[in-house]
Structure prediction request, 399 residues.
Amino acid sequence: MNATIEVVCYKSKVLANNESPLMLRITKDRKRKYSSIGISLNPVYWDFEKSKPRRNCPNRLYIERLIADKIEAYRTKMIELQAENKEFTATTLHEQMFDRNSKPTVDEVFQTQIKNLKQTGRMGYALSHQEVYNSLIKFNKHLNIYFSDIDTIWLKRYETWLREQNFSENTIGRRFRTLRTVYNIAIEEKYVKAEHYPFKSYKVSKLHQTTAKRAINKADIMRIIEYHSTDFYTQFAVDLFTFSYFTGGINFVDIAYLKSDNIVDGRLIYTRRKTHKLIKLPLQSKAQEIIKRYQQNGTHFLFPILSEFHKSLQQQSNRVHKVISKVNERLKVVGKELGIPINLTTYVARHSFATVLKREGVSTSIICESLGHSSEKITQIYLDSFENSQIDEAMRNLL
Prediction:
């Protein structure tokens, strides 16, 4: 059933000036929604049968023009919704039109979120939000829309478009999880009502596939550790892989920011940039050898990834991204040369650390084998919750 849109004189309500407000009335499916059009008049000047001002009404032409413009705007919006097969009620149609200029667009909220993430040093999250923002721009041509415009049909069209671009299932899932995060922020900030939330019916959890194996056995790890190259950058890549394996599978970004201050009484102590958890691990002899190999005078960083030149968070992020790409390129070559069954990356060291300890019978309470699969926060919480002696004993199984 189509909605009917008309302006009526609400004579049951009398204002202080003895006039009654003119109200826009939307009727759909026997339900009505009223909203003021911002003017009032004395009911004697209103033709209740024809729903328009009488000929003798003061400012009649102005009022008629205002009414026509209001009705036309609502009808245009209704046609847009019907063309996009979007369901609407009298209330939601009104909400599509009412007070929209005071609420930020999807574009504005995304840009604000990206800026906030950068200012708080969460460059990885800022980059993922920027990727989704760019993707949505390509899909929708613009984001000068409101969150109430994003419904289940819109999300399905976006999913179809992503599949046509040949993105993997997990990449599509990450895009949708980021979009859902920003939508939740919009709800928290009251930019959109919770009743419009499309992710109740559109389940992001379906966009998931089992991640390919990222762990290798101890024998293959030892072959990598014992690999030597005369090329500095190739050896550097192998050494970073080895260092990560011997230091609890430390993430590459965290390696980049390590300084001499992070070594205290023979232990590596640092705060994970992703989860903000404090990590304390015994610094084994192999890891100490690698640190000494790359320590340079005049810099506090343990490895030649970042330097004093990289002052801003953006410069640091760009540098880390560039170096990890080069490191993984060389690890991939090393892996093929050694016949490693999977593509070798720094992240393989992280997964292998957990898997090797698990295979050696170390309790999952100490190190979770699903590192990075379910929740890295839980993994770090388990790792932090035990005494140093227990961690020390567990990590002796690495060799």
